[in-house]
Amino acid sequence: MILSEGIAGQEAQIIALFEATFAASEGASEGAVIGDLVRGLLSKTPSEDIYVFTAHDTPHDTAHDKDRLIGGAIFSRLVYAEDPRSVFILSPMAVASPRQGQGVGQALLRHALTKLRDAGVDVAITYGDPAFYGKIGFEPLDPERVAAPLPLSMPIGWIGQSLTETPLVALTGACSCVEALNDPSIW
Ligand SMILES: CC(C)(COP(=O)(O)OP(=O)(O)OC[C@H]1O[C@@H](n2cnc3c(N)ncnc32)[C@H](O)[C@@H]1OP(=O)(O)O)[C@@H](O)C(=O)NCCC(=O)NCCS
User: Fold this and answer.
1) How far is ligand 1, taken at its centre, from the CA of residue 129, in Å?
2) In terms of CB atoms within 10 Å, which of 48, 107, 173, 184 comes out highest?
């Protein structure tokens, strides 16, 4: 397996991976919603506000003769109006259905968090299942102290971690996200 950063002309494959993975796990309409979300993130987000990390199987791993995309994790910038720290949110993330439950997701996220830390990102946040993300260091956040950009339908999924030695206790000020995430239906 190869873990990489960047899109490198793979927009269509990345969108297709997210659409197929969420269609398989949550139904066709959710697959379409997440596919559109990823299309929007990749096309509308300024390059300094987004990181895309991917996992590929190589011919060595499979019977195929080309690398195959098996995982993706998209981070985009959150801005806290009165806080100078660099904050990114992971949303969404997917591992291809036949490769789930084999450690790909955890390996991809560990790689991503190391790269973000090296790039000077202070805080990583996500909005998802604490049972999975807790394995990679995400802990519950108090929305009163770390605001979300839009109202949360499942506050239990609001989780994050510091990438520095300073504990993540609070981020000050109102929170805003990139345009593609600024949609109440996905929160
Ligand atoms: C969630 C997801 C990204 C995890 O990636 P993965 O490669 O399957 O996960 P890993 O194999 O690295 O880790 C799985 C571990 O987390 C645990 N886990 C807890 N909740 C889980 C969940 N909702 N999904 C998958 N694993 C979960 C598993 O039991 C397993 O634990 P173990 O290693 O002790 O056996 C992947 O399953 C996926 O794409 N699911 C469908 C889409 C989705 O829900 N995306 C996340 C929301 S944005």
Assistant:
1) 9
2) 107
* Rounded average pLDDT over 84-88: 97
Q: Which residues of 32-62 are buried (b: 16+ CB within 10 A; e: fewer)?
A: ebbbbbbbbbbeebeeebbbbbbbbbeeeee
Ligand 1 contacts CB of residue 153 (under 6 A): no
DSSP β-bridge partners for residue 125: 89, 160
Q: Does 173 map to a domain? A: yes
Is residue 33 within 8 Å of 49, Cβ to Cβ?
Answer: no
pLDDT, tens only, 109-155: 999 999 999 999 999 999 999 999 999 999 999 999 999 999 999 99
Preceding omega of 92 cis (within 30 degrees of 0): yes
Q: What's the pLDDT tens digit per position in 19-32?
A: 999 999 999 999 99
Q: Please tell me if the CB atom of residue 93 comes closer than 6 angstroms to any atom of ligand 1.
A: yes
Tell me the mean pLDDT in the region 22-50: 97
Domain count, the chain: 1
Ligand 1 lined by 102 (C-beta under 6 Å) = yes
Distance 187 CA to ligand 1 centre (A): 20
Query: From the CB of 76, is ligand 1 less than 6 Å away?
Result: no
Q: Is residue 184 domain-resident?
A: no
* Ligand 1, atom 24: closest residue by C-alpha: 132
Within a domain: 185: no
